Amino acid sequence: MGDQAQRLRQLVGGKTEYEAGRWNPPASGGEARVLAITSGKGGVGKTNLTVNLAIAMGMAGQRVLVIDADLGMANVDVVLGTRSGKHLLHLLDEGTSLKDVLIQGPYGVTYISGGSGIEKAVDFTAAERQCLMQKLADCGEMADVILIDTGAGLGRNVMDFVLAADEVLLVTTPEPTALTDAYAVMKAYSMYASRQAIRLVINRVYDESESRDVAAKLQQTSERFLHMNIDCLGYVFEDRSVMQAVRRQIPFLVASPGGTASRCIQAMAASLLYDRPMTVTRGWRGFLRQIFNFAR
Q: Which residues have CB under 8 Å from 185's CB, separation 6+?
């Protein structure tokens, strides 16, 4: 693991780059960048990745907002060791504003709990959708990056978030069931997405070659049967410190900043912020318009 850790250290410049404040990516130029982080099945580490990626981007100087859209699960609360009093549905209350549902979590993470409210979105009236859109609109100005932690699978609510986002990160592991379910998400995405901006994240791998093999299988299958090219953003090594951090309800990037999983997350954040221009296709307001589409 020494050589792998060294390569990761070279990629991210080491922890001292963050501490010294030398990693400052350019501003996004206005509207927030919206990334949906999803998976074909539960238990692949999606929420854990979302929270730690948010922390890594925050350390890089970005204003990051996490929206927990894994309905009724409150997984972001669990990873951060916090408890939210209000969620998105409370925005329908006349006296509740956006700041009332924004939670200033530890480690610089700001987030909104989805609670059980978003699952009722299909039943909202036009007036209720308009209310939510108006109150949520300011999120696009208060953040550079908005990470949407979706539920797992192909439910309508999950796909709504996936299809409305500017970019999608599809998290899987090398397990056969996880790969099968990841392909199902790719298939649904290829059928309904107006533009294709989906990338793979391979979690819990033991070495780079395993990550490349897993990504290649999904990429080849996607090209052959879906006629869709899909990139692999990166991978996260299997790391004992991750499970230890989960049990303590502390993000592993904080609990073990020098661990291999933490270095992988830092490298992934660097790739997202540097390797591609921070362009916005739909943006936050466009995301809201699609989620609360009056024409449904």
A: 38, 39, 40, 153, 154, 162, 170
